[in-house]
Amino acid sequence: MDRALKIALGSFAISFAVLAIKYAAYLITGSVALYSDALESIINVATAVAVIVAIRVAARPPDAEHPYGHNKAEYLSAVVVGIMIVGAALAILHEAYLGFLSPKPIEAAWTGLAISTVATVFNVGWSAVLIRQGRLHRSASLVADGKHLLADVITSIGVLVGVVLVVFTGIVQLDSAIAALVALHVLWSGWGVIKESTSGLLDEAAPPDELARIREIISASGGDAIEAHALRTRHAGKVTFIDFHLVVPASMTVGESHAICDRIEAALKEAVEGAATTIHVEPESKAKHHGIVVA
């Protein structure tokens, strides 16, 4: 089983456990803020399911209908995750509004706080694992899930502070006020996930440092070629698509040109994880005298 899929399955199990813990804290206290915190955890469970589906789809090999593979399924899943985060924020705002209209005293506050803190500690550790492993395996959906959990951590901290303030001040409306403020933070987080994931769907180029490395590899591995130009890159999940034009001497045979292309492709594949390279060979009359000069 793919490691990214194993992590996603673990995320589902932990999210479900955290949901149960937070809902128990709400049942004990009756706090609107703690209820809102539990409500967001339902989205965590749904998000984990979306990530599992996305990773399984992205792992499928290319087929007749999808010759470039299914890697963008992870970006689509990440956008769905972002929409879920926004939905959770709106639901929390709704509950906060109802709490303002009908404020209720918090019962067994310290017990509820202790239980909710346990769930928050789980989320702190697991969000760090998801973001780190997601970036390591270039899984957009795992990173999005980790950022969602991190937003949940901020939510939980804000809720805990709100409940403590209610206990010490006796101002019951603070419970709903803190929930509303935290909902705005979650809303911003959801928008950030949507924006970042959309860039992958729009074929965003490789980052500058990776692009510079690709240029260096082409230059160093070009051998008897003259230059390379029209370099384009794009990310699609774990795959980095690279294509460019390689200018060779007019007297060079097809076999010799092909050997240079094979050498460049091998060097790129070794240096850039998931590199899929396409090279268009041109005679020296097509030289642009700019781009990548072959060493």
UniProtKB/TrEMBL annotation:
Q: What is its main location?
A: membrane
Q: Where are the transmembrane segments?
A: 7-29, 41-59, 75-97, 109-129, 149-171
- Provide the Cation efflux protein cytoplasmic domain boundaries: 207-284
| Membrane topology annotation | Multi-pass membrane protein
GO biological process: one example: intracellular zinc ion homeostasis
Please report which protein family the annotation says this sequence is part of.
Belongs to the cation diffusion facilitator (CDF) transporter (TC 2.A.4) family.
GO (cellular component) term, any one:
plasma membrane
PANTHER family named in the record: MITOCHONDRIAL METAL TRANSPORTER 1-RELATED
Q: What is this protein called?
A: Protein p34
MF annotations from Gene Ontology: cadmium ion transmembrane transporter activity; ferrous iron transmembrane transporter activity; zinc efflux antiporter activity
- Lineage of source species: Bacteria, Pseudomonadati, Pseudomonadota, Alphaproteobacteria, Hyphomicrobiales
Alphabetized, the UniProt keywords read: Cell membrane, Membrane, Transmembrane, Transmembrane helix, Transport
